[in-house]
Every structure is written in C-alpha cells, then in structure tokens.
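Example 330, ligand magnesium ion.
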Amino acid sequence: MVHPLNRFMNLSLQIKSFSFELLRSLKTSQGVLTKKEGWLLHLQSDSGKSGWGEIAPIHQEKLKICDEIIKNLGNNFSRETLEKKLKYFPPSIGFGFGAALAEIDSLIDFGSSKNWSKISQTAFLLPTDQSLISKLDSTLKNHSNESEELTFKWKVGILPNEIEKKILDAILSRLPANAHLRIDPNAGWDRNQAKDWADYLIGEKRLEWIEQPLPSNDIKGLKALANHIPIALDESLLDNPSLRKSWKSWQIRKPSLEGDPRILLEELKRKIGFRVISTSFETGIGRRWVEYLATLQQEGPTPTVPGLGIGWCPKSQLFSKNPESVWEAA
Ligand SMILES: [Mg+2]
C-alpha cells in the first residue's frame, strides 16, 4: 500500500480537540446519541504535503484511551513508525491517520472534478416518536413531483413490538411502489422476533433490507435470515471486521468508525458491490470522506443512496468542506 520511497517520510502532527451537540438526539435500541467529541488532526510530510483527519469514537468511554495514544505519539515521527502502529490502534484513530496519509499520497483527490461534494440524495431517517407518520406523509408530499426513488430508514426495537408492527402497516400502506424501506433494529431483536418480521416482510419489494436484526455475534442467526430476506450487517462489521471480506449481502460501512479508510477506498475503486456508506456525524473533515466514498459507491455495480444524516449537525464552519475552515472553527 505504501510507496517504498514514502516509507521513510518524516511527519509532523498538529492536533486540536472538538465537540458538538447534535440538533436532535439519535435514539436507537441501544441508547441515545446526543453529542460527538474527538480530535482533528493535521499531518504534514517533510516535503510540505498536508493531510487532514478526524478521530471521534462513537462510545464516549473510548475517548480516554484515544487521548493517551495520541499523546504518546508525539508531534514528530517517521511514516514507517506510524504505519506499523496503525493497525493496532482503535478504529477511530485508524480512520484519522489513514485518511490523512491517503491525502498526502493523493490516493483521494478532494480537489478533483469528481462531483463528490454534490452528493445530496440520502435515505430519510424517520423520527421514532409520534411525529413519524406525519413526517413520512410530508416527505412523500414534498417529493411527489420528482422522479427519484425515495428511501426511508426506520429505527425499530424502541417501542413495544406490537406497536411497531402496527406502525409498519401504516408505513407500508403509504409508501409508493417505487419507494424503499430500510428497517434497523440495531441488534435489538431475538431470533424469534426477527423471524416473525422476516416472515411478514418476505416478498415485500419495497423492503431494501433489514439492518442488523440480531446481536452482532449471532452470525449463524444472521446467515439463516439472509437466506430468506436481504440482511445488511452494521454493528457486526465493526465488532468482527473479517466479515467485511466474507459477508456477501449488504454491508453498512461507516468510514469514520471502521478504521483505515484506504481499505474501503480500495474496495470501491475495485468496484466491489453491496457496500452502502453511512455517516456517524462527522465534522467537515470526516464528512468529505463519507461523501467521496458515497460518490464512488454510486458509480459501482450496486448503486444505492447513502445515509448522510442531513439536518442533524448544527450549521457552522466546523462542517465546512474546506478542512482549514473546519480547523479554525474547532
Ligand atoms: Mg444501523
């Protein structure tokens, strides 16, 4: 992966911390996410090339270990040292440094004519409170004149099962034939419940997939379900990265949480299908990667809309497409 002449490159590192509150809190069957915290990094090679990265683990308790690792690295080190350590770092650190190194190596060209920053189509995340149906109705109405196929994502496993099944009927009765639905229990179902929903949804053409219906380590149960209905893995891929090589159906890929992004970049450049790109609420620096990779995904064999989480982050320069503006705003 590393050009032999680049191995001995010396790097200097600047670090800055950031934090922001989401405009709304994200409720899943596993808990509530209200804010993101982490570090921006600016890596410079001795030849003056710049690369930018972001480190922001989704679980707050990982911040301390990330802080220690970053402090121990110091501000000057060789590329060889960094590359050797990278695969042992927590994945959020792997993302930050891998992203910066990829930019120094021009593996990714944010200044190119590729229209990565124009990507706007996203799955609409439905609210999980009483406003769900009215939000669904208004979104359908606002987009009724467009030829684009609408995709909705619905997080379940939050309300009692019987209520969610009634809501499912209400959603399906409203969705036009060309709309898509992604259902995400965030690992919150057991095998019986998952089978019940899968049986009910078999043959439902508007269902794009059920996302991570079972706990991340229940690979046997997930495989059994995938024989009947499209199953996308999400949490399983973070807990067991080798599944990124072996899982043949959909994979929800969250670049900023999964580690060195050069691996996913390479997969998409090789046109490997069934990967869908999802945000984990990044600053502008991480966001560039999410949008760039989502653009590559759409040029691949299985184009589908990413989950960009539009409207969840505040409006500020911290979310600018220009990394220097993001740095200044942190
Ligand atoms: Mg998910």
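Summary: The two ends are 31 Å apart (CA to CA).
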